[in-house]
Amino acid sequence: MTYRLGDDFYSKLESFTSQPFEKGLEIFSEEFKNIDSFYKKASNDKSSRDDREFRCQPRRMYLLEALNFQVYDDIDRDSFNKAKDTVVIVPQCLALMQSKCKRKRGKYGKICGRCVPNCQIWQITDIAAQFGVEVYFSKRKLERQLTKIKRVKPSLSVIGISCILTLASGMRTAQELGVPARGVFLNFTGCEHWSDNPFSTETSIARLHNILKEKYGIPDSPS
User: Fold this and answer.
1) Chain-wide mean pLDDT for the chain?
2) Does the predicted TM-score (pTM) go above 0.85?
3) Per-residue buried b or exposed e for 142-177, using 16+ beta carbons within 10 Å of the residue's own CB
4) DSSP per residue, 20-64
5) CA–CA dist 10, 118 (Å, integer)
6) What pLDDT is recorded for position 42?
7) 110 with 90: CB under 8 angstroms?
8) CA 199, CA 215: separation in Å to the nearest integer?
9) Strand pairing partners for 137?
10) For the chain, which domains are there?
11) Alpha-carbon distances, residue 19 vs 25, 32, 132 (angstroms)
12) What pLDDT, on the 0 to 100 scale, is given for residue 221?
């Protein structure tokens, strides 16, 4: 057997989890300060929108998903660096032009159409290209998207960019497909799930670059 639960397992688990949650919510009090008011607003929304349950997540769930992300990121780090190929999966909400984004059809999903140079997806595409890495917009069915890529690139790893509530689940999907994953959070939310008037989000370009540099080294300077 892999483990055996004692009679006091649940009391010990409750005691153990209460400590990091209390400390974590204290550490991230500034980052999470608006969650309670959004949670209250979402909970009081009696409309029939199909994302109501997703929106109604308390602060503890944000912290839990952040912890899950860090665990997957740590576990997959070595195998991620050893995989031959990498793709970056970006969300539509990161596009500066939003509905006017001129993304184009690519082999494994939509790709940047280079609308405006100050769009982070353009910047991410340029940085990734320095390491020979492709960038694709995420599809609703991530499993299908990664499976299609893995058929051609069997030694595949992925960098996902997403919000706190969805990144860890995407990394788990990748892991179940045998694709080691690392990730970068969106710095804030702006899509239709969180705003009545959606706006473009942003992410840490520096973290993405460091993940790629750790795996591939410093790219050669263009001649």
Assistant:
1) 94
2) yes
3) beebbeebbeebeebbbbbbbbbbbbbbbbebbbeb
4) HHHHHHHHTTTTTTTHHHHHHHHHH--S--TTHHHH---HHHHHH
5) 51
6) 93
7) no
8) 32
9) 90
10) 72-216 (3.40.50)
11) 10, 18, 43
12) 56
